[in-house]
Amino acid sequence: MGVPIPPMACSRADWAKIPPRQVRIDHLITTKDTLQLATLLDDDSTFYGDLFAHVVEWQGDLYLEDGLHRALRAALHQRNILHARVHEVAA
Questions:
Q1: How far apart are CA 67 and CA 35, in angstroms?
Q2: Do the domain assignments include residue 56?
Q3: What is the residue range of 79's domain?
């Protein structure tokens, strides 16, 4: 799945500095097409490392960089809002 966002160089500490905000799930573009258990359990995964999903805003679009499991859980609970840290990338 090719995603047109620039390569990210954000560390866990960089993401932690971004205050979370609400984003609509239907506005997110996923960057992964599968939920991989190895990635989910990785130390850098939001599953253990952060309470909020990581979203990249680039050229007006919102890309779900990490947190597919959180978005899926929210959708299964019929919620249309996800709390995420949104990193804005200049064009």
A1: 10
A2: yes
A3: 12-89
HSE of 45, CA atoms in CB hemisphere, 13 A: 15
Residue 23: beta bridge partners?
82
Q: pTM score, two decimals?
A: 0.78
Closest CA to 82 of 49, 55, 48: 55
Q: Looking at the domain assignment, is residue 5 inside a domain?
A: no
Shortest CA distance to 56 belongs to which of 14, 86, 16, 33?
86
Which tens digit of pLDDT belongs to each residue from 17-38?
Answer: 999 999 999 999 988 777 666 6
- Tens of pLDDT along 57-67? 998 999 998 88
